[in-house]
Design goal:
With about 100 residues, this protein is α+β, with helices and mostly antiparallel strands. About 50% of the residues lie in helices and about 20% in strands. It is built from 3 helices and 3 strands, in the order βββααα. Strand 1 and strand 2 form a beta hairpin. Helix 2 runs antiparallel to helix 3. The longest helix is centred in the last third of the chain and has 27 residues. The radius of gyration is 14 Å and the shape is globular. The model has no long low-confidence stretch (mean pLDDT about 95).
Length: about 100
Amino acid sequence: MEYTYEPVGTCTSRIRFNLNGNIVTNVEFTGGCNGNLKAIPILVEGFTVEQIEEKCRGIRCGRRETSCVDQLARAVREAYDKERDIINKNSYKLE
């Protein structure tokens, strides 16, 4: 499923990605540092939500409290948790 996330505290204005279970693909940033935002999608392609969190969560950009990759880690976790909640609610309804 495709997700769009609006980051907070970064130059990037939007992050799009696909989530299939916990596998992240097709990451795309809008705005931000051109070179970094071309490299990040290539580097994280096919990573799990947990792998992205482990490698990217908490990375800061200069004096900012966050960064584009930190926001990506937050975005994929949020999407994954929402997907799991929907699956759990639907499973509950079936019983």
